[in-house]
Amino acid sequence: MIRGSIVALVTPMSPDGRVDDAALARLLDWHVQQGTDAVVAVGTTGESATLDEEEHCALIARTVKLLAGRMPVIAGTGANSTSEAIALTRCAHEAGADACLLVTPYYNKPTQEGLFLHHKAVAEAVDIPQILYNVPGRTAVDMQPETAARLARIGNIVGIKEATGDLSRITRIRELAGPDFAIYSGDDATAREAMLLGADGDISVTANVAPARMHEMCAAALAGNAETAARLDESLSGLHEALFVESNPIPVKWALHWMGMIGQGIRLPLTWLSPQSEEPVRAALQRAGVTPPQAPA
Question: For the chain, how many structural domains are there in total?
Answer without folding.
Answer: 1
